[in-house]
Amino acid sequence: MKIVVLDGFTLNPGDLSWDELKSLGDCDIYDRTSLEEVVQRAADAEIVLTNKAPVTRESILALPKLKYIGVLATGHNIVDVAAARERNIPVANVPTYGTKSVAQHTFALLLELAHHVGHHVQTVRDGRWTKSADFCYWDYPLLELDGLTMGIVGYGRIGKAVAELAAAFGMKVLATSATPKHAPTNIQFTDLATLFRQTDVISLHCPLTPQTKNMATRNDWV
After folding, report:
1. For residue 181, what are the CA distances in angstroms to 46, 120, 149, 195?
2. Which alpha helices (DSSP H) does the chain contain, by range?
3. From the CB of residue 156, how many other CB atoms can be counted at a distance below 10 Å?
4. What DSSP character marks residue 55?
5. 110 burial type by CB count under 10 A (0-12 exposed, 13-18 middle, 19+ buried)
6. CB 71 within 8 A of CB 39
7. What gap in Å lies between CA 190 and CA 54, rounded to an integer?
8. 3-state secondary structure of 57
9. Of 178, 218, 179, 172, nearest to 198 (Cα)?
10. In 3D, which of 183, 135, 131, 129 has the Cα closest to residue 156?
11. pTM for the model
12. Whole-angstrom Cα distance, residue 130 to residue 126?
């Protein structure tokens, strides 16, 4: 079995081992692969694993031995799924690998917006606080999240994890989802227009589709 990893560096920059994958068959691992290099590198592959390297219709049709495409990430928009389906090639992703870390990063960004921690750390090191006439020192308003309302667009695994963190911070949560969901009583489901009008913070956890494209820049929410 021939396995080709098109862009393995983001998964394993050197601190992990590919030995288990290599034990499954003949395995070629590339750090990065451009669109133009996909067909050449995967010419004999039965299995192609990719993270962000695109696997287009043209590539799929040009790889006669291909039997499986694995996306080593949550989204699969980099693969022409329709072309793969036409050839009965399964396409798989890893839907849960980053749920907690993405939710955590969401709040890292939110806390930076609320407190500008990076800026204040640097200016304290620069001596701004010691030169301040007052004991308290800040350049930006410091916002408490407790009592604010967070809007979550897309209540999937990540949206749910973000909602749990929001509740832990004392935030109210409004959410919207393309499919019906069961949620705790502290989460209220509503329509997009209401969510955009009634929330202090909005976090998008939805795929990019024609329906969601430019969602945040529409001017009819207010």
Report:
1. 38, 40, 19, 16
2. 19-22, 38-41, 57-61, 81-86, 99-115, 117-125, 157-168, 192-198
3. 18
4. B
5. buried
6. no
7. 36
8. helix
9. 172
10. 183
11. 0.79
12. 9
202, amino acid identity: I
Tokens of 142: 């410091």
What string of pLDDT tens digits covers the 222 residues of the chain? 999 999 999 889 999 999 999 999 999 999 999 999 999 999 999 999 999 999 999 999 999 999 999 999 988 889 999 999 999 999 999 988 889 999 999 999 999 999 999 999 999 999 999 999 888 899 999 999 999 999 999 999 999 999 999 999 999 999 998 876 677 778 899 999 999 999 999 999 988 888 888 888 876 665
Place of tokens 């069961």: 182
pLDDT, position 184:
75
Helix segments in 139-206, DSSP class H: 157-168, 192-198
Read off the pLDDT of residues 185-202 as tens digits, 9 standing for 90 and up. Answer: 788 999 999 999 999 999
82 in Cβ contact with 214 (< 8 Å):
no
Q: Say how many C-beta atoms besides its own lie within 10 A of residue 34's C-beta.
A: 11
